[in-house]
Design goal:
The structure holds 2 protein chains of 2 kinds. Chain A is of the alpha/beta class. Chain A has 8 helices and 10 strands. The chains are: A alpha/beta, B alpha+beta.
Amino acid sequence: MDKYRLTHLRELEAESIFVLREVAAQFQRPVILFSGGKDSIVVTHLAYKAFYPLKILFPLLHIDTGHNFVETLEYRDALVKKLGLTLIVGSVQESIDAGRVKEETGYHASRNKLQTVTLLDAIERHKFDAAIGGARRDEEKARAKERFFSHRDEFGQWNPKNQRPELWNIFNGKKNMGEHFRVFPIGNWTEMDVWQYIYRENIEMPSIYFTHERKVFNRDGQWLAAEPCMKLKPSEIVETKQVRCRTVGDISCTGLTLSKAESLEDIISEIAATHVTERGGRADDQRSDTAMEDRKIAGYF
Amino acid sequence: MENKTIKLFTNGYLDMDLLRFTTAGSVDDGKSTLIGRLLYDSKSIFEDQLKAVEAASQRSGNEEMNLALFTDGLRAEREQGITIDVAYRYFATPKRKFIIADTPGHIQYTRNMVTGASTADLAVILIDARNGTMEQTLRHSYIASLLAIPYIIVCINKMDLVNFSEKVFEDIKLKYNDITNKLQLSNVKFIPISAKLGDNVVDCSANMPWYTGDTLMNMLETIVIDHKTKFADMRLPVQYVIRPVSDKFHDFRGYAGRLSGGILKKGDAVVVMPSGQRSTVAAINQCDRELDEAFTPDSITVQLTDDIDVSRGDIIAGEGEKPSVSQDINAMVCWFNENPLQVNSKYIIMHATKETVGIVKSIENTVNINTLELEPGGTALNMNEIASIKIKTAQPLVFDSYKKNRTTGSLILIDSNTFETLGAGMII
């Protein structure tokens, strides 16, 4: 490789930092949607690099389903403290208590879908005009159609059939009152890129990404955490296994991988050898062929 | 696991390079099938994706697996069996990482093809072997040349339907030469393939022993992408001014941006355009690191030795040839919106990191994109049409010609009421 050629990781980093700086320049009240998962951790890290020595210009918004892994919350609070950031929490429980959404019932009940209302309420209440997310185009087929700057109407909805064309690296963040943008700085990254970057930058990660012992049960071939918020069927047995999370969402929809990966190197090797996509472990995507498109149109992440 | 780990970290896996390419072909040329084939044969498709596509293929009555379903993501696309919007796909081989902009071929989606082409280093153009070069082949090739994509690979597809005939392949190649000449294309390569069966996509074809060239995958992995902009004149469009209010960084005043041409070194003499003020590079920062030099397309923060007025929209240029500064802009424009472009209308113009307003003074010529004949321009330009126009801007733009620099030579036109992106402009 010649001296004046950026490696794929550095080229992706340069692109993402460009996008984040455009957000700072074009919007009044941007916010980072922070889930505590690897993608939003990387976005936060990139924001740190983009504006150094300034502090990260954006607060973090965490949509809390009330069904979080405790490790995620600990990590979130430590990061906020370390970087001196403002944390805003939107609570799904509050949305339920206020009658804004109705909790699903039954064995497959999940608060994942309910988050959309809490998220849109938080965006409206705080008058955020750009919500920066860690979604990637390689995750899912509807996300493959996303722009870097994705326009949302005043109802927070996405119109996939009539998106603004996005040419070169010119990002049009103009909008009318009440509308907002979703911005995806790592849209072009793959799962492998994310882990390689975490490795290269030596970013500290929540412990649930690494192997650990956990009480789990198997449902339809998927390992789920046996936490109090999960309702077990009579046939389901709680076992203790060595597992790790490949994606981190709400407990109800995060499939765990049987894994002995102790380090970032182990994780990268494991992903290189895997035969299933990361969202293959997400119960929320398995509801139907267009589950993600339908949720995204409504205003999901 | 240990052995594998060592392999992953020693064979350059962490520092591969990235190739962005786009695909063009009309509705039935098998473009989505080709991409499905590339992903499938390079083992970039996972078991759960495979299961989903198998199930969907069966539901829609396909006996064989419909590879196109790997790429058509939206409900309407899957229902109608066509690609409406640009979709981005990712795969990697041990040699390279790839980003594909999969674009629709229909004439009414010319705008989406332009979008996909705008960031591509290479275009794969498909031709149906049964039909040979058609009007749309010319149109796709024209867009690739208009968007200044440095490399073109022409895939002559569906060779299985013409008995894998060498003569058919050679005839089409010969006819394509007319297009090459007309558009003055360089770096054009041809491959006979069957996307459906996989011949010459990733694996060599046993059915076409007469073809001794590279497979498509091989070509994608090995083509050396032109470093033209890298060694061009230095350009740094200023995105954001970083001025921390803290004691530690009291005197820090950094100009953040992404290099869009050339190489920048500490100590270089620079000029800030359009003001023309001169200064010297005091430091190049990347987060908490200081660099001796940086190159395109890296994102950096630059500090200058002089306390001069620099703001977003300015361009910091190097010692070489300076960018032009003018309020009168000539550009080739592709129109994207149902409401036609009108002479004497005002539009918001975004160019590099600059935003201003412009009025369209005239439409010089429209391009008949099926014949490439120039026709005299009228007073309006319809959706999917391409024309050369004259614009007068409220503030001067600092620009290069698009042929010289794809970043400082491109602009978009925005509706000042709806804020939709209406058109793409390439400065002449």
